[in-house]
Amino acid sequence: MSLSEAEKTFILHGVAENFRVDGRDREGYRPMEVETDIVQHAFGSARLRLANTDVLVAVKIEVDTPLPEKPFEGKIEFFVDCSANATPDFEGRGGEDLAIELSNTLSSAYGSYKTLNLRKLCILKGKKCWKLLVDVLILECGGNLFDAVSLAVKAALYNTQVPKIRAVNIDGDNVEIEVSDNVFDCESLDIIHAPVLVTVCKIGEHCIVDPSLGEEQCTVGSIVVSVSGDSFSAITSIGTGSLQEETLFECLDLGQKVGVRLNEALMETLSQIPAHQDIGFLK
To answer: Whole-model pTM above 0.85?
Structure first.
């Protein structure tokens, strides 16, 4: 998608008047739909659609060994795959750099102990722990991938069920784990403080959130703010361009305010979602 100079000027003037091309204001998000528990053999899954952006997330769990410097904690790893069908830009190896950037951003966002309590994933100190493998598949790209991916990841973690351990048998260096035979004997993850990513773009003299593909071409600088509760867990600069100090603080304030609102809407929606049914929010 390539815009002419006239189209870019139209977008610029709309942002200046706080009335964007699709009718939103500068702090508005496009309609979203989220669906959970849709991948049969995963421990948790979710699909989220943000306008034309479509993301599928599945969570797998396996037994691993804790890191030596974190013997009391489990692990979480992110893998992102940009489908070639999502956009022509992803054909061949076009989506690899973006996939790496997305996975690194998620790892940074979840790097703080305040975002997800990994201690609850520890089975035996220094010996055994649960490892969460979060697989993200980009099905369609319609702008603002970072926000959509983070929301889908949080929804999938909300849906994740961790098997309960019935017994741990230790024989020298050998550790055997017995998992409950009851498939419903599981524990949910506490994801209330799991971060949501908010992409804030500077267009003209103003900052906006949830940029469309066209608006992304008009930005002079963008940052991704990871909002956990009412604080930041990570801040990442994306794309080209740069922001002045005053503009950066303005972007952070906007990202935090919108992130808190976004998280509240997502959590309220997830608490009400029935199995195998779409729920829309932020319409």
So the answer is: yes
